[in-house]
Amino acid sequence: MSSEDILYMRAALEEAEKAAEKQEVPIGAVLVLNGEIIARAHNLRETEQSAVAHAELMAIEEACKKLGTWRLENATLYVTLEPCPMCSGAIIMSRVKRVVYGASDPKGGCAGTFMNLLADERFNHQSEVTAGILAEECGEILSSFFRELRRRKKEEKKSRAEASDVTGE
Fold it and tell me: Across residues 5-24, what is the average pLDDT?
């Protein structure tokens, strides 16, 4: 684990915190080129009501606009959760050189856990993958978020039940 990987994953975690503050699933991403963060993003699916507002896609889009090209051939993407199939596709299509992620996603991770689209040689581009950077911190922010979400939903359900008891419904 390089100090550079830790530094940039901490920046991705800062983005994940921003998502959590907005009640979004706390996933953050940063794109790095030549030792400089060129794009930062976090999940905005709920805010934008968009299925494609994933942190990785938003960071890739920002970087492409900033650089004036869709080719991110020498860039490294740091993301707190292993990319899904959609994000892995965008990583391949934008030619991101390297992907570094924190927590694995056994239900949908496509950078080596569930499957590995990023290394599939049938595509014309593959990305180098480094897994598990600050995995515990990246996993904990997600676990805490979902624990709190379940608690809130349970409270809401209880409140609705109590309200219907009062009204006799």
Answer: 97
Q: How far apart are the first and last CA of the chain?
A: 58
Q: Looking at residue 114, what is its pLDDT?
A: 95
Task: Show binding-site residues for Zn(2+).
Answer: 54, 84, 87
How many CA atoms within 13 Å lie on the side-chain side of 87? 30
Pair 24, 50: CB distance under 8 Å: no
pLDDT band for position 149 (cuts 50, 70, 90): confident
Position 1 scores a pLDDT of: 73
CA distance 95 to 102: 20
Give me the pLDDT at residue 167, please.
63
Detail the residues annotated as belonging to a binding site. 54, 84, 87
56 is catalytic: yes
User: Annotated catalytic residue: which of 15, 24, 56, 82?
Assistant: 56
CA separation (Å) from 73 to 12, 47, 68, 134? 20, 30, 13, 25
Question: Rounded to whole angstroms, how far apart are CA atoms 64 and 57?
Answer: 11
Q: Backbone dihedral region of 112: left (phi > 0), alpha (psi from -120 to 50 degrees) or beta? A: left
Alpha-carbon distance of 56 to 15, in angstroms, equals 11
